Amino acid sequence: MEHIKEIILCKYGEVILKGANRSTFEAQLLRDVKRRAALFGHYDIRARQSTVYVEPLDTDAEDAIDGVFAQLKKVFGFVALCKAAVCEKDMDAILAAAKAYLPEKLANVSTFKCESRRSDKRFPLSSPEISGEVGGAVLEACPHLTVDVQNPDVVVKTEIREEYAYIHAGQDKGAGGMPLGSAGKGMLLLSGGIDSPVAGYRMMKRGMTVECVHFESFPYTSEAAREKVFELARELAEFCGTVKVHVISLTHIQEAIRDHCEEDYFTLLLRRFMMRLASRSAEENSCPVLVTGESLGQVASQTLKAMVCTEDAADRPVFRPLVGMDKEEIIEIAREIGTFDTSTLPYDDCCTVFTPRHPKTQPELYKVVNEENRIDAAALTDEAWETRHCVVLRQGE
Ligand code: ATP
Ligand code: MG
Q: Which whole number is the average pLDDT over 186-212?
């Protein structure tokens, strides 16, 4: 039997194509696709008609197409993806390709229907005519199938495009969102918990490039806790290729707070130092906003008043993509993106060092500032700032 060429079609909804951003968005999408496809072999990649075409250039690349397909499901900006057979824009060629390509794809389903789309209006048959002919060919090649137009297991689609015709047996959902890099850069405060990796993912999905700052408190926090955060960053890198983590030590700050301030304020004071240092790191790394995994009311330090006191110490906007979500909803996403198991490893974090027994849930800013004035916040911030170092985590390493 003649060799059927299979390629991947990735479709990006019209939504991201508005106006003058179109070519920038396309370039960003293509960059993401090219980086991922290159992990598997040689592919020709081009954008046309709201679709990115990924075509294997040799037999190794053909064999690796399933791996590429799985990768491309993580590309933000695509709404749907499918693998498709390519053939000439000629009805005999289309029917031959359908008979050769579809039986394997449809082996495990029992009902189907056909749809067609012509973006080339010069094609001699109408869409319903194409669907009818392809449907006949499918029934001939796959006698176990029946047609169900209401609720089919699979929709077989024929698309007559600019250069060729494409036939596919159902498409998968894409990652959605906006192309990576289309929405500027943010500095994510990454802890070892469940929430902050999800917060980072949600911003990446909207096109933001994310760098991370992680605070530790050695020896009160362990080497294992730091490794865990690097592992989370590596898991996030699955979505964007590379994640930088800036690590800063809060040990002396926490000891000073413990020794000089009222216990009820420990967590709030600590969080203000985090905001201050994260702001510096954001400034140094050109991030106009901070991102946290806070969710309203989740813990004492995330009440409305507590967040107001915390944010007061930041020098730029703080994005909280999870602020209106329940823990259950956050956990669901953590499982989906593959960070949940790492996040729930036994866990120590500087937030759990010197935890107050009765944290303030309705703090007044001036009282928090009063407590802060018992220590030399500026000098402690400067000292902690000097402990920073950067680790780069890459996808698949
Ligand atoms: P998470 O699951 O993300 O740890 P959490 O519910 O434990 O969140 P907190 O510990 O109060 O909440 O932290 C709130 C947010 O502050 C986190 O989502 C994260 O953005 C930031 N944060 C907390 N601890 C750290 C840390 N050690 N390093 C960097 N950021 C932190
Ligand atoms: Mg935490």
A: 97
